[in-house]
Amino acid sequence: MPVEFLGQVFSEGASSVPYLPTILRVLPWAVLIYILRWFFGGETNKVERVMHGKVVMVTGGTSGLGAAIVHDLASKGAQIVLLVRSTQDYWLIDYISDLRKKYSNNLIYAEECDLSSLHSIRLFCTKWLDNAPPRRLDSIVLAAGVMAPPFSARTVTKDGVEAHWGVNYLAYYHFLTLMMPALKVQPPDRDVRILVSTCAAYILGELDLNDPEFLERRYPGRRPWLIYGAAKIAVMALVAEVQKQFDEYKRPDGMPTNVKIWCVDPGIMRSPGTRRWLSLGSVVGLLGYLVTWPLWWVVLKSTDEGAQGFFAGLYDPEFGKGKGGALIRECKVSPYRKPEIESEILGQQLFEVSKAQVAKIEKAAALERAKQKKKDEEAEAKAAKESKSKEKDVTPKPKSQKYCGKKVAFSDETDTITAEASATDTPKSTNKRRTKKT
Q1: Cα separation of 88 and 202, whole Å?
Q2: Residue 436: how many CB atoms within 10 A of its CB?
Q3: pTM of the model
Q4: How many CB atoms lie under 10 A from the CB of residue 360?
Q5: Residue 35 pLDDT > 80
Q6: Could you list the residue ranges forming a coiled coil in this record (predicted)?
Q7: Residue 250 belongs to domain spanning
Q8: pLDDT band at 342 (very low <50, low <70, confident <90, very high)
Q9: Short-list 184, 195, 191, 204, CA closest to 239
Q10: Residue 133 gets which letter from DSSP?
Q11: Which listed residue (46, 54, 101, 232) is catalytic?
Q12: C-alpha distances in angstroms, 224 versus 10, 197, 227, 263, 281?
C-alpha cells in the first residue's frame, strides 16, 4: 500500500491523490506551530516521588498554578492543607469534595489563613504550633499572589498595606517566620522543602527599603511591574536569608538541618492573573484576549506546564540535598539575574524593616480590635437592656375578679365542686318554673 501510494504520487503527481495538495500546504505551518508550542512549553519534570502520607501546605491552591499543583499532589495521595481566605465558602466545599472523589483521597481539607491579614496568618500559625507532639510537615508551597493590571488604582490589604507588597512579600515573611519552629523540630531524616513562587518580572522591579510601598515615590499605576517586581525581589532575598538561618541553626540532637527553601519561576502562563493583566481588568480587554487567544495558546505556558518546576522541586531528590535558597527555573537551578538578592546586607536589612513594619501593623490592628470589641459589648448590653424593658411593658397585668359566692376549683376537686354546683342550680331553676305555674 505505501509503495503503490508513493508510485502514484511520483508517476501521476500529488494532485492525483485526494486532499494531498491541501495537506502539503498546511503541514509546514502545523509543524512550525508544534515546534513553537514545544519550545514555549518549557522543560518537563521526569522524576517521580512517593507522596503517600506526606503533609503539604498550599496557598493559592484553588485556581491557576496552585490548582495544578494540588491536583498532582492529590493524585499521588498526599495529605493537602489548603490555606484559604475563608472556609465558609460553598464553592470551596464543592472543590474539595470533587478532589476527594476524583483521586479517592480524603486527606484534603482547608484551613483559614488570609494572606491579606497578618492577624489571620498569626491565628493559623499559632493553632498549628499549639500541638504536642509537633505536627508533621513535609512541604510548603506558597503559590498565591496578586498582580494588578496597568492603569489600575492602588489597592491595599485589610491591614492597609499596598497589595503587592502586603500579599506577595510581607505575608510570606510573617508566615515563614512564625512557622520556623514547626519546621526546625521535624525529624532529621525527613526531607522538608519549601517552594515560593516568583516571576521574571523581578528584573524590572525597583526595591527601596525606605519606601517599599511607593508612598513617597508615587504609586506607578501605569507601570505596576515596578512595585510587583520590587515585591518579588524582596521575597527572593527573603528566601536566601531564611535558608541561611536554617543552615546556621544547630539542632539539639547535633544532626544537620533538613529544611530546604527554593524560589520557583514557573514562567508566563495562561493563568487567571495573566488573563486579567493582559485584558487590563476590563470587559473590552477580555474580548480582545479571547480574539487573540490562539496566539497566547502558542507563546504562553499552561498552568500544568508552569507547575513542572514545582514538581521538580517537590519530587527530585537533588533539591532535597542541594544548597537551597536559590532559584529553580525550567526544572533546574538557575542563577539570579540580580546579584544583590543574595547579599547578606540586603537580607538583614529586609528582616529588620519587615519585623518593624509587622510589629507596627499588628499593634494598630490589636488596638482596633479592642475598640471594636468594646463597642460590640456595649451594643449587646444596650440591646439586652432594651429587650428587658420591652418585656416588662408587654407583660399583661392580672385582672381582678369579683367574688360571686361560688367556690372555684384549682385542683383535683374540680369534678366534685362542679357536681355540687349543678346539683344546687337544678332545684333553683325548678323552683322558678313551679312559681310561674302557681
Answers
A1: 35
A2: 7
A3: 0.81
A4: 11
A5: yes
A6: none
A7: 52-266+301-364
A8: confident
A9: 195
A10: S
A11: 232
A12: 60, 18, 6, 22, 13
